[in-house]
Each structure stands twice: as C-alpha cells, then as structure tokens.
Amino acid sequence: MEQNKMHLINKIFNNETIRTMWDKEDEKYYISIIDIVSIISESQDGRKYWNKLKQRLKEEGNETVTNCHQLKLKAKDGKYRMTDVCDIEGMFRIIESIPSKNAEPIKQWLAHLGKERIDETFDPSIALQRVIDLYRAKGYDEEWIAKRIKSLQERKKLTDVWKENGIESNIEYAILTNEIYKEWSGMTAKEYKQYKGLRKENLRDNMDNIELILTDLSEEATKRLASKQKPNGLKENMKVAKMGGHAAKVAREDVERNLGESVVTKENKLNYKYIEDKKENKGFLKKRKFNWLVILTNW
C-alpha cells in the first residue's frame, strides 16, 4: 500500500489538505497552523484568524505560540511562502483554543484519551489490551503479537541491568542501543529506520523474522555479559554493548554467507511509502533539510 497519509491527521480532518513537514533529525512532524485554523474555525481568512488568536494566546501567557516556528510551505499556487507551523502537541493546544463546533469532537476525543490514561494507571492491564488491539488493527497475527510483548519484557530486563550498572538518562540508553545496532547491522537505530523508509513507526515492528532474531540475540547477549562483567558507567557499558552486538554480527555473517544475500532488508511490515518533495528551509533549527509531505485526507 502507498503510505501518503499521516493517519492521525486523517482521522481528525475530513477531505482536507493539511501541509505537513517531517524533520529527520528530531523525528517530528511540523504542521501548518493556518491550515488547521482554517478548517476548525471555518474562517474565510485563516491567516487573519490565526493572527488574532495568536495575539490572544500571547496575552494569556500560552506557551504554544512561543513554540511555533516558521517554515516555507508550498501554497496552492505552487509557490513557497513562510508559514507558521507547530508540532502535534501544539496542534492540539491550538485546536483547544478555538471556540468552534468543529473543534468540539476533537476536544471530546482528547478528554476521552485523558480518562483512558488515568484508568490505565489504576489498571495497567487496560493499557496492555490496548496495545494488543492496536497491533491487531494493523494486521499483525497473534503469534507475532505474543513475541512482540515478550520482546518488550526482555528489553526492560536489559535496561534494568544497565540501570544497575550506572546508566540513568534516556540519552545514555539510546547511545548503548545504537552501539548494539551499529555492531551487527552497520547502522544506528535512526539510520536503520530511514533505511526502511520509516518515520514515527517503530523499528522492531517493521523487521522480518531474521532481523528480529538478530536484534533479540544482540540484546540478550549484551544483558548477560553486562550482568556478569558488571561494567560501570557509559564508557564501560558501551564496550559490553558492542560485544553483544558482535555476537549477532557473527550470526548474521554466517547466515548471509549461506544464503548469498543480505538479511537486513529495506522492507517494512506495512509497506510504508512516503511521498517527498525536498526543499531546504534555511534559518530553522540547524538549517536542516526537511522532507515535505502533503497529507491528503480521504476519510
């Protein structure tokens, strides 16, 4: 299937075009505020409506405006013009600030999500069932889902060992994970996702069986080595993570030698394919190059 939609946006807006940009570095979407405001408010002049709303939000001390940026977005006439954009969280904050009947269903949906998350703090099994239902809805079979839940448990055991060995921050966990991936696959987790054409999608959810086995082997080897050798701090744990990744590298090379082909594939589970219109936006963040994605809704 051709993945030319961001499903979250599709579910909210019907038969409308929302201009959206993907930031590869931060792995985050930026969305045209004027497009959102125009649809929700039904204003004939979305830009004018947003300017007034922005001023009111500033006066109220709303941080949403502070977190907005300007990027060049492609207009209907084909020209690129500077336009205010926000991330997904900012999008919902802005929608909540618009007094319109069109915003009410979204506000009710957000309230329901909040209630669900609170319910899950009292009964975590609700969250687990929600995860299972989401995987089923995406087309994963029961055997795969069971293995995926098991892999989440094993991953938690690995991070627990790292924590015991002096690893504390999420950044350090990411560094160690990248050491494992780089050793056996030749890519960091982010590079691996990009290789498969993924964005917000989970990397493991889009691996085939051999890739998953190699990932599990590398992390299991790292966990056992770290438990036995008890490295302390990031530098020592990086060496052990590389050793764990090397175990999977040896297995990969042996399989590939016999198969005569690479087991690291560009394929992803649901055959995502993003339509990109590359254009440089200077002066934003670190003068990065963004991939453009026009979201065409059809719900």
Which features would summarize this protein structure in a list?
11 helices, 299 residues, alpha+beta, disordered N terminus, single chain, elongated
The total of helices stands at 11
Looking at how many chains there are and whether they match, the oligomeric state comes to: single chain
Q: Which consecutive residue ranges, at least 5 long each, have pLDDT under 50?
A: 1-7, 282-299
- The separation of the N and C termini measures 16 Å
The value of Rg in angstroms is 22 Å
Shape: elongated
H-E order: HEEHHEEHHHHHHHHEE
Overall helicity:
55-70%
Percentage beta strand: 5-15%
The count of strands amounts to 6
Strand order of the biggest β-sheet: 3-4-2-1-6-5
* Mean pLDDT score: 85
Structural class per helix/strand content?
A: alpha+beta
Largest sheet: 6 strands, antiparallel
Task: Outline the secondary-structure elements.
Blueprint: H1 7-12, E1 17-23, E2 28-32, H2 33-41, H3 46-59, E3 69-74, E4 80-86, H4 88-96, H5 104-122, H6 124-137, H7 142-164, H8 170-185, H9 189-195, H10 209-229, H11 233-259, E5 279-280, E6 289-296
Antiparallel strand pairs: 1-2, 1-6, 2-4, 3-4, 5-6
Helix pairs in contact: 2-3, 5-6, 7-10, 8-11, 10-11
